[in-house]
Amino acid sequence: MAAGRDPRLETLESLRWGLLLAAEPQGGSLDERLEYLRLLRDSIDALDDSPTAKRVRALVRSESLAEVAARPPRPFGELLVAQGSIDDDELREALAEQRRSGGRIGEILLAAGKITDDELARALASEWGLERISAAAEPVAGELDLRTALELGVVLVVDHDRLAIASSERLERPQRKLLRSLTGVERIVVAPQRTIRELTARAYADAIRDEAQSRRENRAAESALRD
Predict the structure, then answer these.
(1) For residue 44, what pLDDT is reported?
(2) Structural domains of the chain sorted by starting position, each given as residue range(s) with its CATH number in brackets
């Protein structure tokens, strides 16, 4: 946390994402949503009577938890329209391309130049109720080995002076538990696949180079044996 930063600010930032999730939860099981909302409701006791705090309290009243948590998720393309990244015509074109070639709507729009990396991360963060990665995030290898990072599609970063796991995929509970046991990090931030690939290449440059060299040596040894 940066020097001079109000410690309450971090709580309010977390509640900002919690407020978004409570207003329109996206994904996760009903039990997970309910548990999240209960934790959010309990954390409100530390807040004052500001308009934001009152709105959060109203959204997470105990009698409305099940109703809020059970709302169906909004299609991802509609989230992009709602945040102003694309219009309805661009969404229809992307959906048509998705039917033809498959793939995820966000990545299709990104490849077509209709949205930016930041817009995609913002929509994913909205969908999952998480923070999005900042432009200043720096990758680190830390305790996370390259193989695990590639298998899970994640990378360890320092973002706003704090460690976080950056991911372009929704991490399920077993995956989060594994990453926490390996790194000691619980904080998850959202990043597009393209950003994850770039950060991974930077974080593991030496390991990737050594792996490539090892493969070249193995191929050379196999060729020599055949000769």
Answers:
(1) 54
(2) 8-69 (no CATH), 77-115 (no CATH), 133-207 (3.30.300)
